[in-house]
């Protein structure tokens, strides 16, 4: 099952809103086939594992291991449980049950009805953790939310307006941290910031540091922006601008009128099948999510620099689940699940 998980992780950033899944086929304690879900809309892990077996006559005498319950419904591909039954694989070992309403035990039931031996719950916690975004989304109807910010050694997220006017740099972290942030963006489906971040920093919010797809950009503000001095309006990347006044679409830019509530934004994103969201806003936006307890993880990067004064970074009162060095910076991850 651990080999299945290693395979599954290769699909990270490429399969959402589907889950990451890995599968191996074992005959006489030798792996004779393996596969993982490589890209959304393409073959699932079980199909790829079966197709990799050279001598298909061995399938009737083999065990299949798969990190998530085989699907039982027609989506972009046929049901994997039907293929397993067709190939007469006698024993299937499953890591975790798929909590998607269209599956949720139905795949297991179908296999058992075909008199296939089924074992469930092998390395279950690891299997659930791998697809924490997928499982949270289908359990609650809301995206998995990761807060992210950089702060100075003395706890400031930004310099004071006076220091910025004097031309002092607001940059906090080093190159390694920049690469980490771009990689993290590539793993999530959407990224959200507030009006102040757009107006003060004019960010791109892309994965320009690596060759990976950029997330959907989500901006949350009261008054809509249409001025093309801002980077988010100068390219053709998909961008949603939630505001209280305007509702229209222009190419890949969409202005969405909303009531100003964070939950309205999250519900709208969920309706678009967005299962994960990274918040890179300023202190105001981040504190809104913290105060409403609308977050699952928080990633803070502390740079090797002192600001002495400025805008205080958000405070997280939770146990640290990870501390590690990224270049000269320190990453701390907090878990709110």
Q: Would you write up a description of this structure?
A:
The protein is an alpha/beta fold and 337 residues long. The protein contains eleven helices and 17 strands. The strands form three sheets. Strands 11-12-10-9-8-13-6-14-17-16 form a ten-stranded mixed sheet. α3 packs parallel to α4. The radius of gyration is 23 Å and the shape is elongated.
**Going across the major beta sheet, what is the strand order?**
11-12-10-9-8-13-6-14-17-16
Overall body shape:
elongated
Classification by helices and strands:
alpha/beta
Q: Radius of gyration from the CA trace?
A: 23 Å
Beta strand %: 25-35%
Query: Which ranges are low-confidence, i.e. pLDDT below 50, for 5 or more consecutive residues?
Result: none
Mean pLDDT: 94
Largest sheet: 10 strands, mixed
SSE order in H/E notation?
HEEHEHEHEHHEEHHEHEEEEHEHEEEE
* Intertermini distance: 24 Å
Q: How do the helices and strands line up, and which of them pair or pack?
A:
Layout: H1 2-8, E1 22-27, E2 30-36, H2 45-51, E3 63-68, H3 80-86, E4 91-96, H4 106-113, E5 117-120, H5 124-130, H6 132-140, E6 144-151, E7 156-158, H7 161-165, H8 175-187, E8 190-194, H9 195-201, E9 216-220, E10 239-243, E11 248-250, E12 253-257, H10 262-271, E13 276-279, H11 283-291, E14 297-302, E15 311-312, E16 320-326, E17 329-335
Parallel strand pairs: 3-4, 4-5, 6-13, 6-14, 8-9, 8-13, 9-10, 10-12
Antiparallel strand pairs: 1-2, 1-3, 7-15, 11-12, 14-17, 16-17
Brief account:
The chain has 337 residues and is an alpha/beta fold. 26% of the residues lie in helices and 26% in strands. It has a ten-stranded mixed beta sheet with strand order 11-12-10-9-8-13-6-14-17-16.
């Amino acid at each position: 099952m651990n080999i299945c998980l290693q395979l599954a992780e290769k699909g990270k950033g490429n399969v959402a809103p589907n889950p990451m899944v890995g599968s191996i086929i074992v005959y006489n304690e030798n792996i004779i086939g393996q596969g993982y879900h490589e890209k959304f809309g393409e073959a699932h892990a079980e199909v790829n594992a079966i197709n990799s077996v050279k001598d298909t006559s061995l399938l009737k005498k083999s065990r299949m291991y798969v990190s998530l319950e085989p699907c039982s419904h027609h989506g972009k591909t046929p049901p994997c449980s039907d293929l397993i039954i067709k190939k007469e694989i006698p024993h299937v070992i499953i890591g975790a049950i798929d909590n998607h309403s269209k599956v949720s035990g139905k795949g297991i039931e179908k296999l058992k009805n075909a008199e296939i031996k089924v074992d469930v719950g092998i390395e279950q916690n690891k299997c659930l953790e791998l697809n924490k975004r997928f499982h949270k989304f289908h359990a609650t109807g809301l995206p998995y939310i990761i807060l992210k910010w950089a702060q100075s050694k003395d706890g400031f997220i930004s310099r004071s307006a006076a220091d910025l006017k004097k031309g002092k740099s607001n940059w906090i972290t080093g190159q390694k941290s920049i690469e980490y942030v771009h990689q993290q963006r590539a793993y999530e489906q959407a990224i959200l910031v507030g009006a102040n971040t757009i107006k003060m920093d004019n960010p791109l919010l892309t994965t320009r540091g690596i060759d990976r797809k950029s997330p959907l950009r989500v901006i949350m503000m009261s008054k809509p922006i249409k001025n093309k001095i801002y980077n988010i309006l100068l390219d053709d990347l998909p961008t949603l601008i939630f505001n209280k006044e305007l509702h229209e679409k222009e190419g890949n830019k969409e202005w969405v009128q909303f009531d100003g509530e964070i939950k309205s934004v999250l519900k709208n994103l969920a309706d678009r099948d967005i299962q994960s969201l990274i918040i890179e806003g300023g202190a105001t936006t981040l504190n809104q999510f913290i105060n409403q307890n609308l977050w699952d993880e928080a990633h803070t990067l502390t740079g090797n620099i002192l600001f002495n004064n400025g805008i205080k970074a958000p405070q997280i009162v939770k146990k640290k689940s990870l501390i590690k060095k990224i270049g000269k910076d320190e990453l701390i991850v907090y878990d709110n699940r």
